[in-house]
Specification:
Layout lengths: L1 H9 L22 H15 L12 H5 L3 E4 L7 E5 L16 H7 L3
Antiparallel strand pairs: 1-2
Length: 109
């Protein structure tokens, strides 16, 4: 069982095989929870790693603080920041804690 394998590693127990994990991001699909879920589960079923790492958009934290991101023709599918919330050092002090309600309201459903 995968859970037991991971648990054994954490406890430092000997195993007959080493657990493996691999992951990737799903640009574009990571902007919608249902699409991301389908992509992640398909990847998990195809490669069957012992541990699944969830891979939301790489820009989710900056979006929560008010930045705007965009996708472009990146070889690794990474977003880039189009509008930065903080433009100079003095603005750091005015940065409010992000509102999850505001952020979640902006997510596609």
């Amino acid at each position: 069982m995968k859970f037991e394998k991971i648990r054994s590693v954490i406890l430092g127990e000997e195993l007959d095989e080493i657990p493996v994990s691999l992951w990737r991001h799903f640009p574009g699909m990571d902007l919608d929870a249902s699409s991301l879920c389908r992509a992640q589960l398909s990847f998990q079923r195809r490669f069957d790693p012992d541990l699944m790492k969830l891979c939301p958009s790489g820009g989710y934290a900056s979006i929560a603080f008010g930045a705007e991101i965009e996708y472009y023709d990146s070889p690794i599918g990474a977003p880039r920041t189009r509008v930065y919330r903080v433009k100079d050092a003095e603005e750091w002090a005015s940065l409010d804690e992000p509102s999850t309600r505001t952020y979640l309201a902006s997510c596609p459903r």
